[in-house]
Specification:
mainly beta, Pnp Oxidase, Chain A, 3-stranded antiparallel beta sheet, 3 helices, globular
């Protein structure tokens, strides 16, 4: 096992190292009809409580990235222990793209046309407040417009290249 510090790491070395980071999985959902899209993020966090705001990092090559600017609103649904199949669809496993990612799950319509996973442990309808470009990604800052919660759902984590359910406890 190599414990030596690596100066000026390559993108590949950084990505390999980040596989050891445990991330809580959330969905970012955006768009309507045939343009409905979304992705899984493990970079989502709360930003401020006053006003309620969240932050996530979105790769600008993502198919949903341009929709965030066009629609100006998005859903944020934390994933529970039983949501691995949802995470895989939104990660594009099996080549699933666009609106087909929503198949096989129950959704709740929220304010301003956002869509939230109906049984998510927590979900927010958000308005895009700001997108800050850095490197390959945009830092997405969202103002929370509506909150939905469902107790007892546990959590879905991503670690070492795989999803892992964490039961409610």
């Amino acid at each position: 096992m190599d414990h030596a510090p690596q100066n000026h790491p390559s993108p590949e070395a950084f990505k390999a190292a980040m596989r050891g980071y445990v991330g809580a999985c959330s969905l970012i959902t955006v768009g309507q009809g045939a343009e409905a899209n979304g992705l899984v993020v493990t970079t989502g966090i709360s930003l401020t409580a006053e006003p309620p705001m969240v932050l996530a990092c979105i790769n600008r090559s993502s198919s949903c990235w341009p929709l965030l600017g066009r629609y100006g609103v998005f859903g944020w649904s934390a994933l529970g222990e039983g949501h691995q199949a949802v995470a895989e669809r939104f990660s594009g496993v099996g080549g699933v793209k666009g609106a087909a990612r929503y198949d096989g799950a129950l959704w709740r319509d929220a304010v301003e046309g956002t869509r939230l996973l109906a049984d998510a442990p927590l979900a927010f309808a958000c308005r895009v407040d700001e997108m800050i470009d850095r490197g390959t990604h945009s830092i997405l800052i969202g103002r929370v417009l509506q909150i939905s919660t469902a107790v007892g759902q546990g959590a879905l984590l991503y670690w070492n290249g795989a999803y892992h359910g964490l039961p409610a406890g």
